[in-house]
Amino acid sequence: MASVHESLYFNPMLTNGVVHANVFGVRDWVTPHKMALLVLLSELGRAGAQLGLLERRRLNRLLLPLLQGPDMALSRLRKAIEECCPHLAGSVHIRLKLMAEGELKDMEQFFDDLSDSFSGTDPEVHKTSVVGLFLRHMILAYNKLSFSQVYKLYTALQQYFQKDEKKDGADENEMELTNPEELDGKMEKEELDGPLREEEIACSGPLSQKQAEYFLSQQASLLKNDETKALAPASLQKELNNLLKFNPDFAEAHYLSYLNSLRVQDVFSSTHSLLHYFDRLILTGAESKSNGDEGYGRSLRYAALNLAALHCRFGHYQQAELALQEAIRIAQESNDHVCLQHCLSWLYILEQKIFDSCVLLEHSVNKSLHFGLPYLASLGIQSLVQQRAFAGKAANKLMDALKDSDLLHWKHSLSELIDISIAQKTAIWRLYGRSTMALQQAQTLLSMNSLEAVNVGVQQNNTESFAVVLCHLAELHAEQGYFAAASEILKHLKERFPPNSQHAQLWMLFDQKIQFERAMNDGRYHVADSLVAGITALNSIEGVYRKAIVLKAQNQMSEAHKLLQKLLIHCQKIKNTEMVIRVLLSIAELYWRSSCHTIALPVLLQALALAREYSLQYLASETLLNLAFSQLILGIPEQALNILHMAIEPVLAHGAVLDKGCAMFLVAKCQVASAASYTPQKKIEALESAILNLNEAKTYFAKVDCKEQLRDVLYFQARLFHTLGKTQERNKCAMLFRQLHQELPAHGVPLINAFK
């Protein structure tokens, strides 16, 4: 189950994906690209009523990203205008050509004419509008230029235009060799409204203030909502370093560098950037301006809090505790209740690493509600539910608690927490073994639309919650034998969360586990053994457990038993009850294979007691199936059948296909063993019923390509058909058994001594 505290990181830079950047002293200046935009605005004003409503609407949508974004090549700018209004694109090109091929006085006259846009009783542009502010900034920047700077600007404009002319000439030569339809198709795929590409960001000089703010806000929003559309970590860091080279005191660039370092789990760079962010925030006085005299202390305590969160994320709990104590001390001195509540939430996380205690968390939830902090209160409720789920509380009580937190989410439009809540429900139902309910919750989340407004073309829900739900969905499909569907889901996960993203480890683990199960079902133990290393790197407990399973399948009983005993002690120490039960079941199976049937019974009873105590219904049903198998081995098949009738329903309703097959196979074995004391007629009916159950088991095993179990079922069926005198059916089963037996290695273990 994923942690619900990832969102507790205080982010002073992001509010709904928008960066609140400080003015950092880099003024706007006139560039050839901005002159092209000025020409576009001038021609747009001249066109007036000649433009249709649809064309004007398209141009208005295009203007904002052009005004805010970095400079781009003239060819791409023309292409963008042509898609909105081809006639206007031609006018802009002609006007720029006349200016670039004319004289310097033509550019002077152009800037003089721009002021006329504001004159008259009904001006073309309002001074306070977005376009009006841009025009005024450019006119002011141009008027401040010296003569030599004006001449350099004119020369740059000529080079800007000539570069476009040369590119057009090269494109014309290429068009003679290219199918026009293919060229049109490529142009249609150009995403002008999408996020900036790496080649568009690179520039020879620093970005202006507005461009830097737009760049940072866009990249921060993409890191939050759709990391795949953001620049690659190396490219983004390169641009941030370029930006900081011209202004080292730009605090928000340091914070984005911190977020970027977290993407690649770089603890040194992330710590360095975080400290620089708060240092620059204090040095520039930005916090004091926005928060009065108290701003300096606020920066210090939130710096300590963020540092504690960073250390906790990387597992440095002692350093995190020291930083958190510092944040608490400063917050108490300043009487900052909001910061103290954040500190209390992180204190619970750190204490949770040492011992389980709900006292801090309950206190945090009550205080958060008292101070009107619904986000923190909801996170506290989510954590309480998670803790009580592991403690074995009833599912109905947990769902009632989550319902109360959902009311907070919808009331305050907390979209991210709505997603976390549904993902939490999915994980809880999976923990309790209710796969149908887990599937329903997963589909609910995938069908939802985000409440947050994001840019066109940006995935709305590339969050940890969606990664968790999609991973569960892939595993559920794999358990039911739909491996193609599971592969498609994992493929989608790989595209949505690339390997360098922060949530990629989730799908990596599930992918390895699904491959491991398929290899084990197929009897390819060497392949399964090679996957253990990958699983261990992502989850050490799962890796050790899978290694023991491989050793058990390879009949290395003593090595498997030693490994399982060590794992059992470790899991009992960290209170991982689910894994404790699974380990106990594996140990019981080792005792069966070693013919120590009576020793297996206390182990199974211990596992059953734990499963019932912690409300793990599916594991309890699986334990009962193992108990039934033990009773079959000990010669009391009637009692085994009674237990099976009680335990088989949850397995058939919510279990994996392999477990369903094993359950039906066990039912058939018990029926055959019980039939020994029946009358001849009743015995024949019991054997025929067992054959039907074996057919059902065979269908389940074939669905997951479990060849070893298929071989055992075919052997059993052949014996039953021989007893009933059905020679043709016996020969068919015997032939199929022989084919599988030649394909698979024989381990010399009697058929009756293996439940799975």
Automatic annotation (TrEMBL):
GO cellular component, one term: spindle
Residue span(s) of domain Anaphase-promoting complex subunit: 254-353
Similarity remark: Belongs to the APC5 family.
GO biological process: anaphase-promoting complex-dependent catabolic process; cell division; positive regulation of mitotic metaphase/anaphase transition; protein K11-linked ubiquitination
Chain ranges of the Anaphase-promoting complex subunit 5 N-terminal domain: 30-167
Protein name: Anaphase-promoting complex subunit 5
SMART domains for the chain: TPR
Described function: Component of the anaphase promoting complex/cyclosome (APC/C), a cell cycle-regulated E3 ubiquitin ligase that controls progression through mitosis and the G1 phase of the cell cycle. The APC/C complex acts by mediating ubiquitination and subsequent degradation of target proteins: it mainly mediates the formation of 'Lys-11'-linked polyubiquitin chains and, to a lower extent, the formation of 'Lys-48'- and 'Lys-63'-linked polyubiquitin chains. The APC/C complex catalyzes assembly of branched 'Lys-11'-/'Lys-48'-linked branched ubiquitin chains on target proteins.
Organism: Irena cyanogastra
Pathway annotation: Protein modification; protein ubiquitination
Keyword Nucleus attached: yes
Glycoprotein as UniProt keyword: no
Keyword tags: Cell cycle, Cell division, Cytoplasm, Cytoskeleton, Mitosis, Nucleus, Phosphoprotein, Repeat, TPR repeat, Ubl conjugation pathway
Gene (name only): Anapc5
First-listed, main subcellular location of the protein, grouped into a coarse class: cytoplasm
Xref: InterPro entries: Apc5, Apc5_dom, Apc5_N, TPR-like_helical_dom_sf, TPR_rpt
Localization, UniProt: Cytoplasm, Cytoskeleton, Spindle; Nucleus
